[in-house]
Protein 1
Amino acid sequence: MINVTKTFFPSIEEYQAQLQRIWSNQWLTNRGELILELEDKLKAYLSVEHILITNNGTVPIQIALKLLGIGGEIITTPFSYVATTAAIVWENCTPIFVDIHPDYLTIDETKIEAAITEKTTCILATHVYGNPCHVEAIEAIAKKYNLKVIYDAAHAFGVTYNNQSIFNYGDVSTCSFHATKLFHTAEGGALFTKDTTLQHELFYSHNFGHNGPLAFHGLGINGKISELQAAMGLAVLSHMVIILRERKRVVDYYNENLDLTQIQTLKIRENTQWNYSYYPVIFKDETTLLRVQKALNEVQIFPRRYFYPSLNTLPYIDNTIMPVSESIASRILCLPLFVELDQNNLQQIVSILNANL
Ligand SMILES: *Cc1c(COP(=O)(O)O)cnc(C)c1O
């Protein structure tokens, strides 16, 4: 069986070597040695000033929304994983959707200003599939209207834009280290900001607001990760060169062998060093998508409809029509993309797909 992704497993010996340290320390969580080491290594790997590792990629969005004092209306993208919208609603804010760009699939920055009202406090956009939003335009709009910017950068591990980490953009960026993501800690995630004061605030918030054992700085939640997960992160991180090289191999094969006259693929934004995180294909209509999906499923190949449905149609949302996002969501399929996907698998996927267009 071939799924859309397959979690990268380091060797059990590599994981055990990290676990040995935990047993020696007799310390399982609360920012132990492995968590601190993983933060240091990630800071160097990503070239970022600050990082705060968290328990997943959703809680950090909620922490950022809470901490930046946000309420009211949040301008956001309808084309993302459900966590982006759910975090907004969970924090008692109102998502205001702005449609996406038909090629980049990120929020359409030219439509943001029309959606701003006196209740707007923030723009929460996703670098979907690791493709950067138009960060300069978004920053200019945020300045003009005095809005905060949060990027859901769950897919964007290792992406650089204009030769710097994409995590450097916005007031806060968040990432997910879930097992299905490019770099993982089984469950995990991170918060990024360039603002040292904000970094301190984020730090308190992810640990119940504790300021030492007896005092509290403010309201907080539990956003911490354990040493067991940090151990996985350390073991996986040492394989990033191979992970990226093998994912690029798969992406190159698809680019060279799929019938690109019949399908649309992701347009990566200029000046981006991408991370090969997903391979979405957009069919001419949903019927074609369903035909391709059925043919692949028959031979135990399971691509995923990332992202369906368009988030403006969720049952707990006051639906507004988002023509581009709804159209793309109905026609987009993410093909299998992982390190061990071999040449035979790739040939089979491509020939079935091309034959069913
Ligand atoms: C995976 C994902 C999340 C959530 O991350 P978790 O670590 O599973 O909580 C948030 N946003 C996007 C766009 C994602 O793909």
Protein 2
Amino acid sequence: MSLIPPSEVFPPPERLLLGPGPSQVHPRVLAAMALPLVGHLDPSFVALMDETKRMLRAVFGTTNELTIPISGTGSAGLEAAIVNLVEPGDEVVIGVNGVFGTRLADVAERAGAVVVRAEAPWGEIVPAETIAAALGRTKKPRLLVLVHAETSTGVRQPLEDACRLAHEHDALFVIDCVTSLGGCPVDVDRLGVDAAYSGTQKCLSCPPGLAPITFGPRAVARLRARTRKVQSWYLDLTMLEKYWGEERVYHHTAPISMNYALYEALRVTLEEGLEARFTRHRRNHEALVAGLDALGLTMAVAPERRLWMLNSVRVPAGVDDAAVRRALLEEDRIEIGGGLGPLKGRTWRIGLMGESSTGDNVRRLLAALGRILPRHGLACDAGAGVAAAARVYAAE
Ligand SMILES: *Cc1c(COP(=O)(O)O)cnc(C)c1O
């Protein structure tokens, strides 16, 4: 066997990414990643870091000084938020209604926290009463952590009441906005969020590899008041802030090309404008839902709780989840996601994130489903989905 791999392996095939992330990447971002490297302390790179922090603040809706990209995917942002704010023995309340709340609880327990779960069924929000009851079971809760956009279920978690409850208990309010940032309003300062983290490959439409994070004054005060070192050396914000701040102290070699990519992705985002970007995500979501409905499919989440960027659809009875996804990939080069955990085999997850959220992509997917579904046991009018989506676009 030759040492050189066969050509089917690389370069990658053409795909339209309509799953739970990564999303389509803008050509300007791909081009940025192909540029020559500079050193991680080069004056030009330092200028890029400063502009990145400025743009990230705009996207998060914050004036927080400590707003930087963590090197690593969204999970690194998750872990950074927890390990910097938790000391062993701290009580932490976590909303658990999907994969990412479950992951947060796991990470917090590994960091030595006493985790109190505010649980709700997958596919529903965590109600304010459940959060209040969980806080009531603690003596001195350090954090309340909620997932704003639960990508495993397609649910958007309301934040206002939870934020008030957290602050009434003198706990910091922390949110996971990995999937929501850049696709719907996050508004860290307006809501009173103390810390938030995200990822690059969802609605920011950048490859996976960085995790934007922001710490407000109360979170920074907690960081300064720690009695022990942060458990993780790599994710220790007290050291990372010295590289991203005025001192420019070497910590680890910044992933240069990833930072080029995020810089360009943030420019693309802000050139479009956040409001326009949110409107685009909402419109394409509405058109997709109308089209899916016309094909006889049912959404898995109540209308007022649905995410615009992640659409959970029930797999109809008698239809083979994996066979339909395989046909979409092989015939139409479209990737959508399957269900996770208790929803495995029961839902499809259609992502319309960032660059993936376009009218053309909505029509392309609906046309493909209209053609493929009848062969897999769901009788439908093949053109009905595209026609219903067209009516939504025409109505505006
Ligand atoms: C994708 C995602 C993460 C984890 O991000 P990775 O980049 O996969 O590490 C965390 N939280 C939510 C809500 C996500 O959608």
